[in-house]
Amino acid sequence: MIELTALLGFAVAVTPLVLTPGASFTLVSARGMVGDRPGAWACIAGTAVGIITHAVLAGVGLAAVVMQSAELYRLLRLAGAAYLIGLGLWLWLRSRSSTEQGSSDAMRRHSAWIEGRRALVANVLNVKAAAVYLTLAPQFLSATQAGVWSMVQLGVGHILVMVLWLGLWATGLTALSARFDRLAWSRRINQLGGAVLVFLGIRSAAQVR
């Protein structure tokens, strides 16, 4: 069990990263601003699973192998960039649809599952998120503490910060969406969200060396 001061220190250290808009923020915003509370929280849940995945991979050393191999690193960066661009284009195409998905409980559950899965894949393919657990996280652990369980504990702290921020953001946006025509608003948000994701993907691909 790592010390509480280490957990708090890591949580403070990752807060600026959590507050920086990225793919998860964009996906949560896209669902929150059209009043899709389950979809927004599914994106948050998918991001949380992605964070734990990075923590576990770093703990067992698999992520380090990827980060130390220039070729594997570039391939992962390109895969993540391609996924973001594809997801952005999909959001843009969805904005041209005349209607939102059905409102039945079964349809909402299915939609939430899909949104969560997209957020998970986007986070897992984010090499910057992996770098957090290969460069930043070890600074809060002693040599004897390095391992999967310690990384998972730090990951839980990371998740708490992320859930607090994105949860508040999603709740506020969901409440705000009730004041607008959701169909027209949904189209605009999907267009904006799609453009942001395409931009993030292109920027990520351009940074590959």
UniProtKB/TrEMBL annotation:
It is a multi-pass membrane protein. Keywords: Cell membrane, Membrane, Transmembrane, Transmembrane helix. It is found in: Cell membrane. This is LysE family translocator. It comes from Arachnia propionica. The chain crosses the membrane at residues 6-28, 40-66, 72-93, 156-177. GO terms for molecular function: amino acid transmembrane transporter activity. Coiled coil: none annotated. Pfam families: LysE. InterPro entries: LeuE-type. GO terms for cellular component: plasma membrane.
